[in-house]
Structure prediction request, 267 residues.
Amino acid sequence: MSGGEALASCLAGKLGYRTVAREVLVEAAAKIGASEQTLTQKFESSPGLWGRLTSNRRLYVIAVQAALAEQVLTDDLVYHGHAGHLLLKGVPNVLRVRLIAPIEMRARAVEARQNISREAAMEYIREVDEDRVRWTKLLYAVDWRDPALYDVVLNLETMTIPTACSALTGIVKQPDYATTPDTTRRVEDFVLGCRVRLALASDPRTRAVEFDVKASGGVVSLQGEMPNAGMMTHVNLRDQQWIVETVRGIPGVKEVRLNMETFDAYH
Prediction:
């Protein structure tokens, strides 16, 4: 309730870009066979309700990241939603903006939208902010309020949406954010890595294994860890060839380099 949707709409109009928000969740839900409602709840609810990052929870986040990556690959866009700057970490030509506003201003917007009292609106905002702090700390080990995570922080206490929109439009048009062959290649590598992570996280045989995925020019390097042979696991040594074949079948993959390490597991 800080004006992000209005600012995104203004920017899209000035720049001729698309705006992307909830449709990312819809696309992600379709890819993993979950309902949009289920994915939204898992992606946004407080981690305090479940206490740890489960493999299913990780799948939901990977699916949303992959869906957003595909959107970035196809066109210029303005994304407004949860953790966009973290989901697109490492992608070039991304202007990361945090929009803030006094809590009184935000409370008035909540009051109008939900038809609740000022006190209830203030409490709602506090709860949402606290949930997002816990959520980003669990998933990314960062505090989303840290200004170092953003390129620009805008305060709407005295600045209007049109003024903020004009300022950001000017920044985006600078050479720092120009598209070049190098930035295009880096975006393609990022998207390919997201496709691979989603394919591995979607399969029950590899869902519990966290892979470090790197893609460069169609060459995909995978680093994973599993218990020694004989221990309980979703992946064993015989599955390694299956992993290679699965990844090799993903569009854009030319070569797969797999390194699976083992560790001792004890009860």
Observations:
- The chain has two domains: 4-177, 181-263.
- The CA atoms of residues 28 and 116 lie 32 Å apart.
- The chain is about 50% helix and 15% strand.
